[in-house]
Amino acid sequence: MIFIPEKITRTIKLGNLIVGGNFPVLIETMSRVSLLHKKEFLQEYTEIEQAGADILRVAVKSAEEVEAFRLIKNNVSLPVIADIHKDPRLGVLSAQQGFSMVRVNPGNTHINGLKEIASASVDYNVAVRVGLNSGSLALRNRDLVSIIEQELMKTLDIFETAGQKNLMVSAKDSQVENNIIINEKISSLMDYPLHIGLTEAGLGLPGMVKSSMSIGYLLFRGIGNTIRVSLTDGPIKEIEVAKAILNNIRKKVKGINLISCPGCSRMRIDVLKLATLVNELIGDLQENYTLAVMGCEINGPGEAKGADIGLFGSPEGIVVSIKGVFQGIKTQDEALKWLSSLLKEKPQ
Ligand code: SF4
């Protein structure tokens, strides 16, 4: 087994959450609705919370949006990050009006503006994320990693001098390799919790693959405390993909790990159908075990051996097992009922 050391960062407070250290990696997504549209915003917020996000980021573009947040903040329980670009006045207002964190972009915010935000964030005990995107840095012809390093160090110094202790950092690129190199470098330089993701990942499948490669690689290296999958889609899809990534980093997340075979001509059952039904049964259960759905009795038992619960096809029906021990042969309906009651009992 390859030993991959964990990067243990310091911990910070983000609303009612602790981020960093050995705490689980958290899922962030971003609202697509302006705070000015209260009803639509709260509807989207409810869907985001139900889908399993831990943190919500919203674009703050005007003082009116900060005021709109002040009026609805008691209706939201997730920590909300005010995403500020260019206008430091909005960062100061956001710190004053109850956001859990202000995200600043030193690539497009003047140094005096950063100082104002730093001071307000300390006064109002609000966390700060210093978040760089390579796209918002002017000096594209110089080495990207060293530019990002310089910008981050300069900005962190401003916030540290102001006494801000609840600091996070992010630096994103739209290329998988660049993104990994940048984050490995940052992680080696500091122990602030890191927010990771791949910016402008794009549409559908290509976006999911790029995000999974980048975020997954970094998490396996022990780098990353919060993640966002940035897709040209909606927040719910972003959360689904983020959860799927985290499900493969077993040390980091709670939740059932469903494994299923791809199926081949040995299949005794419709694996896709059964795995889909089992996935629906699992829902959002947070127990930390592995459940296997396999197509045949030839390879199924062997490949499902390490699973806590196994369902695999056989000429007689669906064989069910617990930790590799045979429990019986059932029809599909019976197997699903058996699984449903087992999940309620929370098998150890
Ligand atoms: S478990 Fe059986 S059906 Fe599934 S891929 Fe392997 S051999 Fe084929």
Describe it for me?
An eight-stranded parallel β-sheet has the order 8-7-6-5-4-3-10-9. A five-stranded mixed β-sheet has the order 11-12-13-14-15. Strands 1-2 form a two-stranded antiparallel ribbon. The radius of gyration is 23 Å and the shape is elongated. Helix 7 links the parallel strand 9 (195-196) and strand 10. It has helices at residues 38-51, 63-72, 88-96, 111-123, 144-162, 176-189, 204-220, 235-247, 271-282, 300-303, 332-345, and strands at 11-14, 17-20, 26-30, 55-59, 80-83, 101-104, 127-133, 167-172, 195-196, 226-227, 257-260, 290-294, 309-314, 317-322, 325-330. It has 348 residues and is of the alpha/beta class. It folds into two domains: 11-247, Dihydropteroate synthase-like (TIM Barrel, Alpha-Beta Barrel); 257-343, Sulfite Reductase Hemoprotein, domain 1 (2-Layer Sandwich), CATH 3.30.413. The protein is built from eleven helices and 15 strands. The longest helix is centred in the middle third of the chain and has 19 residues, at 144-162. Bound molecules: iron/sulfur cluster (SF4). The site of iron/sulfur cluster has 13 residues, from helix 10.
Uncertain runs with pLDDT below 50, 5 residues or more?
Answer: 1-5
Query: What proportion strand?
Result: 15-25%
What is the distance, rounded to the nearest whole angstrom, between the alpha carbons of the first and last residues? 26 Å
- Sheet with most strands: 8 strands, parallel
Element-by-element helix/strand order: EEEHEHEHEHEHEHEHEHEHEHEEEH
Q: What is the CA-atom radius of gyration, in angstroms?
A: 23 Å
- Compute the number of helices: 11
Helix content: 25-40%
The level 1 CATH classification of the largest domain is: Alpha Beta
User: What is the CATH H-level superfamily of the largest domain?
Assistant: Dihydropteroate synthase-like
Shape: elongated
Small molecules (ligands, ions, cofactors) in the structure: iron/sulfur cluster
Strand order of the largest sheet: 8-7-6-5-4-3-10-9
Number of domains: 2
